[in-house]
Amino acid sequence: MRLITMQSPAGETAGILHPDSTVTPLAAAGHSSVMDLIESGPDAWAEVEALSTSGGGESLNGAVLAPPLPRTPRNMFCVGLNYRDHFDEGKRPEGAGIPDAPVLFTKPWTCLVGHDATVELDRAASSRVDWEAEIAVVIGRRGRNIAVDDALDHVFGYTLSNDVSARDLQLEHGQFGQWYKGKSLDGFCPMGPSIVSAAEVGDYRDIEVELRVNGVQKQSFRASSMVNSVSRLVARVSLGCSLLPGDIILSGTASGVGHWREPPEFLGDGDTVEIESPQLGLLRTYFSE
Description:
Strand content: 25-35%
Radius of gyration: 18 Å
Distance between the termini: 36 Å
Oligomer: single chain
Number of helices: 7
Shape: globular
Number of domains: 2
Structural class: alpha+beta
């Protein structure tokens, strides 16, 4: 199943996106929001999964999409340096290697925006705004100290995200970086267009992702190239820290970011970033000053 949240003057409405691109309000299945469905558990997920395969809903044309999960229970968990080619493209200290344990930081849900959103570049804050295509993992079942072998049972689904990064803020203290500040400005987490259930995705390792800036490919990768698998990420984040339904883990980006290009490339007024996946859809974001 694919779940979306639509924005209107009357508020947010969650919907089931059908294969024919029509939408049925999630309320028709007895759920007020995507979060409500997630919290309702696996039996409810299966019922909506069955409904999602049919068509005949309302047209999606003209709908304004919010992030599929507009508010998470707390800050989103994020993973750095989780693709070897991204680590290798950077200018790392001599002798440095990828850390044995996942590198974790957070982003607040207040920086979430949906598909086709326009993000205003605040030049008082940053002049070096960069892109990072990522696969976001949505947690469905609560758990603490989750075993690696059980981790995927706690995953509700997957969606696309852009871990937009102000490199000047992120790196202003050198190796003692401000990852949280540099990645948490308003609009710095486009996400969507929908959450695709784990049942529909199947083996997440087959997910393919491409990022384009103004139509030019900058990143292309598969989830199978992660250094730390989704199972290991879920297990590690849950170590002594209960994961909650609706929690989101951004699983890291691959090579091709603007900061490490020669010369470096950063986003500016009028730029369009598209992140596309055969499994997860198209997430488009406009940038303006």
